[in-house]
């Protein structure tokens, strides 16, 4: 998203059209969620938006900007450099960058859920904020810890930098990733059919948010191919019975922002531990 925002200055009408595209997409998705929610009790409420989603949007937006500036600084000082794939057509570059970033996210995300030992448990505590909501809807996508937002940003940017993408390709990859992120948390009953075998959509990602850890698989964000390849693909055919974590009361409430942000800084209580 930030790349796209930066690119707005470079791409003239196409770049400046991005905020219009994003605003229109979010508006359409929100209207559809109100008109035909899959589960009304999984929908956004005014309280959830103002108490949880909006503050997290602000905090995580700041974390992403900080991570982007950090990486830009490293590139500027030649700590990170490009392998140079700019000779390829830009759609191919965008596809390669999106696939590599999603593979990196798949590995990291799976480690957040299944990693053992001190580091594995700490990674879960940077990620669990995204799993505390007992709903899925478009703006719930913003729920998460700023540490997670920073490493997601790094995972998304490194392939683009490493490959040396042209601005057009980086722009296309950012548009695609942004679309997937919003649509995968959509509270509308969309059946994607065979497309589930290619992309992560609403049906698949909803299971990732199941309160039943056995169902909460589908770790990729964009391409379900990675889940199929590594054995974590789940599409049981009916919606999960409940969303969130097995014991929501073991974690701070939505209004306890400081306690939520402190989760990675404190050791887990017995009820918060994933491991027996
Ligand atoms: Zn997760």
Which secondary structure elements does this structure contain, and how are they paired or packed?
Blueprint: H1 2-7, H2 12-35, H3 46-76, H4 90-114, H5 117-127, H6 146-163, H7 167-183, H8 202-208, H9 225-230, H10 257-261
Bound molecules: zinc ion.
Tally the helices. Answer: 10
Which structural class matches the secondary elements?
mainly alpha
In angstroms, what separates the terminal alpha carbons? 39 Å
Q: How many β strands by DSSP?
A: 0
Mean pLDDT, as a whole number?
86
Provide structural commentary.
The protein has 10 helices and no strands. By secondary structure, it is an all-alpha fold. The protein has one domain (2-269). α2 (12-35) packs parallel to α7. The model is unreliable at 1-5 (pLDDT under 50). Zinc ion binds next to α4.
Quick tags:
276 residues; mainly alpha; 0% strand; disordered N terminus; binds zinc ion; membrane; Sterol desaturase; lipid metabolism; glyceryl-ether monooxygenase activity
TL;DR?
It contains 10 helices and no strands. The chain is mainly α and 276 residues long.
